Amino acid sequence: PAARFIMSRDKLIQSLRNVSLNWNINCKNILSVGSRDDRELDNIQAIFKKSKVTGLDLFSASKRIVTGDMHNMPFEDLKFDATLSIHNQEHAYDPKKSLGEIFRVTKKGGLIAIEVPVNFEPSATDRVDYKNLLNLITYFPEDSLEVLWSETFNRNDKDKANLRVIFKRK
Predict the structure, then answer these.
(1) In the 8-state DSSP scheme, what is residue 26?
(2) Average pLDDT, stretch 96-112?
(3) For the chain, the helix, strand and coil percentages under 3-state DSSP, each to the nearest 5
(4) 3-state SS string over 47-78?
(5) Which pLDDT tens digit goes with each residue over 12-70?
(6) Spatial CA neighbour of 90 closest among 57, 29, 136
């Protein structure tokens, strides 16, 4: 199960690279929300070789990861060309605020890449079921995003599904 989870995370990172190339969107400065350790940052760096990659998490096992809360990010407005949030938005206490922070720190014309589980029973740790792409979009300002790529797929380990999406911030 752990190997499938890791490969799943890498799939969104690779899809972000493909979208950035296909749409000619420069990703020189990338934020990874909820990265915890260097593994995810290393994978992003391997795919975006010339980019500066920054991590953000409540707890940091690396000096490359800024300690901070996704509900109140310690970054200036419009700082990042691309922001990734892989399997952490379901843990949000206030999804409108955490997704609003992602929107705030991503440059206009930049990319927002999100992967979340969908269609599950919320719990004490997995608090938010975004259900589908159309529902996820409602957490952002109206008419502020363009969907460039998305997919929903069933996970092999359970009857749960995952949603992956890449938005362009208008």
Answers:
(1) -
(2) 98
(3) 30, 30, 40
(4) HCCCCEEEEEECCCCCCCEEECECCECCCCCC
(5) 999 999 999 999 999 999 999 998 789 999 999 999 999 999 999 999 889 899 999 99
(6) 136
Beta pairing, strands 106-118 & 161-169 = antiparallel
Instruction: Report the distance separating Cα 6 and Cα 56, nearest Å.
Output: 18
Residue 67 phi, psi (nearest 5): -80, 120
29 to each of 24, 90, 162, how far by Cα in Å? 15, 25, 26
Tokens encoding 75:
């970054």
Q: Reduced to 3 states, what is the DSSP secondary structure of residue 114?
A: strand
9 pLDDT tier (thresholds 50, 70, 90)? confident
User: Are the C-beta atoms of 118 and 89 separated by less than 8 Å?
Assistant: no
Which of 170, 149, 156, 163 shows the shortest CA–CA distance to 16? 149
DSSP 122: -
Distance of CA 39 to the CA centre of its chain: 15
Q: What's the pTM value of the predicted model, to 2 decimals?
A: 0.94
